[in-house]
């Protein structure tokens, strides 16, 4: 009984603390038409200190979404265009010599912001990708011999084009695994595209965005998310989903054994739990359910499961494998 009362009280606090999300979404809707799932995933990543890999063809408003998100959230935004001739110094900064006092001084790069749009990340060479990896994982940057902490909150949203591979560098698995989610950005619906066209024709897309969030709002939300209750059965369900991607035969999906080259890492379990908590927070709940886990499973797992040769020959995608896992793993 006491536990139920505590959850009810926590739920009330979560409802109050999550109001800023609705205010920010209202601001986003002034410029962005549709893409509600993408926007929600960005909020989830921000709430639990994650990063997102966005994949979609050009022209789907990825930059507009991220820029507007940062403006509504009152966060510093930097867009970095990744190119084959890019150097790590172009990302993190470098040491500048001052002849006046004969000293070197650090000049910080564009990575020193709250929201980073790493546009076409797979166009940069390995040295640049490794520099970004330190920033994402350690939340710090080393310039010369000095190490500088990055600003909080710190969110990297990297984009890549799924249809163009000329002049690109495949992201190493170690770096891809650092992204909490891989979100697929799809085309808008017919009605949404009609509204986008009319909005652009009337210049309504230039509507001013009012910052509606304070840094303290994000800190309070993160503290409450840590308190969200997770039943032991749901904990085991999360681990079952991840282990099933490595050993599908144990869960009655022997047909996937030859379809998977390798499954999700333990980092997937961690991120799936955190993302499920954030999803429950957005639903104003003080506990997570299997439905929260299912809602976020595709985005959390699709870049951590590599289909084998047979799967590629049969045009079986990671999402097809995840769908079978969700169908066969017993829900508590």
Distance between the termini: 22 Å
Domain module tally:
2
DSSP strand count:
11
* Structural class computed from helices and strand pairing: alpha/beta
- Share of helix among residues? 40-55%
Which secondary structure elements does this structure contain, and how are they paired or packed?
Elements: H1 2-17, H2 19-28, H3 36-47, E1 52-55, H4 62-72, E2 77-81, H5 88-92, E3 93-98, E4 103-108, E5 115-119, H6 126-138, E6 140-143, E7 146-149, E8 155-160, H7 173-176, E9 181-184, H8 190-201, H9 215-227, H10 232-244, E10 260-262, H11 266-282, H12 290-301, E11 306-307, H13 309-313, H14 318-328
Parallel strand pairs: 1-8, 1-9, 2-5, 5-8
Antiparallel strand pairs: 3-4, 6-7, 10-11
Helix pairs in contact: 1-9, 2-4, 3-11, 9-11, 10-11, 11-12, 12-14
Write structural notes for this entry:
The chain folds into 2 domains: 34-200, P-loop containing nucleotide triphosphate hydrolases (Rossmann fold), CATH 3.40.50; 229-328, Magnesium chelatase subunit I, C-Terminal domain (Helicase, Ruva Protein, domain 3, Orthogonal Bundle). Helices cover 46% and strands 15% of the residues. The chain has helices at 2-17, 19-28, 36-47, 62-72, 88-92, 126-138, 173-176, 190-201, 215-227, 232-244, 266-282, 290-301, 309-313, 318-328, and strands at residues 52-55, 77-81, 93-98, 103-108, 115-119, 140-143, 146-149, 155-160, 181-184, 260-262, 306-307. The chain has a 5-stranded parallel β-sheet with strand order 2-5-8-1-9. The protein has a two-stranded antiparallel sheet with strand order 3-4.
């Amino acid at each position: 009984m006491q536990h139920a009362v505590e959850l009810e009280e926590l739920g009330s606090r979560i409802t109050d603390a999550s109001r800023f999300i609705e205010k920010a979404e209202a601001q986003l809707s002034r410029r962005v038409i549709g893409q509600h799932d993408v926007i929600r995933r960005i909020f989830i990543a921000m709430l639990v200190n994650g990063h997102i890999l966005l994949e979609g063809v050009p022209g789907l408003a990825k930059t507009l979404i991220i820029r507007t998100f940062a403006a509504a959230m009152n966060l510093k935004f930097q867009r970095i265009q990744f190119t084959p001739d890019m150097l790590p110094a172009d990302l993190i900064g470098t040491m500048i010599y001052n002849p006046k006092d004969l000293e070197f001084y650090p000049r910080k790069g564009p990575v020193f912001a709250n929201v980073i749009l790493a546009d076409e990340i797979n166009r940069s060479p390995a040295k640049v990708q490794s520099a970004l990896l330190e920033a994402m994982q350690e939340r710090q940057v080393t310039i010369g011999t000095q190490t500088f902490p990055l600003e909080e909150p710190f969110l990297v949203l990297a984009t890549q084009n799924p249809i163009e591979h000329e002049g690109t560098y495949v992201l190493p698995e170690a770096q891809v695994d650092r992204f909490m989610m891989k979100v697929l950005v799809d085309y808008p619906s017919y009605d949404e595209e009609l509204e986008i066209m009319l909005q652009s024709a009337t210049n309504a897309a230039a509507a001013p965005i009012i910052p509606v969030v304070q840094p303290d709002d994000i800190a309070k939300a993160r503290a409450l998310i840590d308190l969200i209750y997770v039943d032991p059965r749901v904990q085991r369900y999360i681990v079952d989903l991840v282990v099933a991607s490595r050993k599908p035969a144990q869960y009655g999906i022997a047909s996937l054994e030859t379809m998977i080259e390798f499954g999700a890492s333990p980092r997937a379990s961690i991120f799936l739990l955190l993302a499920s908590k954030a999803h429950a927070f957005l639903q104003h709940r003080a506990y997570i359910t299997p439905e929260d886990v299912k809602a976020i499973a595709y985005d959390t797992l699709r870049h951590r499961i590599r289909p084998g040769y047979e799967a590629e020959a049969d045009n079986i995608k990671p999402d097809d494998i995840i769908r079978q896992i969700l169908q066969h793993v017993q829900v508590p």
